[in-house]
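Take a protein:
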Amino acid sequence: MLRLFQILLTWIIAVFILSGVVLVAVRAIAQNTQPLPETYLDPGECPQPCWQGIQPGTGLERYFFSVLERINLHYSGTTRSNGEILTEFELTMRGDIRLADVFAAMGQPSHAVLQYVAGTTGATPNQRQLLVGGTLYFGNGLVLADVVREDEEWIFSPDMVVRRIRYFAPNPEGSAIPIGTPPWHGFGRDYGHPVR
């Protein structure tokens, strides 16, 4: 009986030590990664289209780049302007922002469409292939999020990788959503499957 107690005590101590080692390793890994700032997709104090308080049609191009640089040097952006005033801008992601992050910042889109897109995945970074991609429309079509899946499942899901988000100045003709774009009807739903 004493021998059984010693074996059990040895196992408990070993599990406790192993748990401590795993916890230390997880903390070390977490400290070495640079997480996305929580405010990166924050629209700021203005209605969509808006990023960090900057709206196309009213924001200044140099201010956009100063905010982008201040928040995170790992992301890039491009702009179009009419002189100094932005008419549109694009945030290009590096693969660590997911569709769930966009929903947290902007809410649900009004419309969405799935399509095949050419691209690369983490598994094959040097080989372009056809991937399931999608475009989601927020803010009456003035904000577009382009996403891609790393598998071939034909559904929207919160874990889709965001490639870029584009912001456009309001259009005098109204909605910028292309005619025939299906309304958003949730994750995991059928959006039709085209022939390759």
